[in-house]
Amino acid sequence: MDLVDDFNEYRSRMNDKIMQSDNLILKRIFNLDTNTYAPGTVDVATKEMIGLACSMVLRCDDCVKYHLGKCKELGITDSQIQEVFSIATLIGGTIVIPHLRRAFEYWEALPATTPS
């Protein structure tokens, strides 16, 4: 498996286990997350780019990978992603650079279209 497949398989498998635990609070948190990124006044692509920038600043590599995958699915361009990377690095400071490196690597590893 490669970088993208490994991440997607692990995330899917663990999300299934979490949902099988039948914990109401966790289910509500997952539902809130899903609904936050649904179409609304702010378009989905913009929401994903905001999520990506926030995830980079918060230094959550799993979240960065997830949002990068969604951005790729939505047709976000390389130049748009580079701009988001720039904003996140400016806001987060140089401590974001290791996460920027991994985000850059993951973006390049994503196929033209990734599964949800």
From TrEMBL:
UniProt superkingdom: Bacteria
MF terms in GO: peroxiredoxin activity
SUPFAM superfamilies in the record: AhpD-like
Entry coiled-coil feature ranges: none
Residue ranges annotated for the Carboxymuconolactone decarboxylase-like domain, each copy included: 26-105
Entry's transmembrane regions: none
InterPro entries: AhpD-like, AhpD_core, CMD-like
One Pfam assignment: CMD
Name of this chain's protein: Carboxymuconolactone decarboxylase family protein
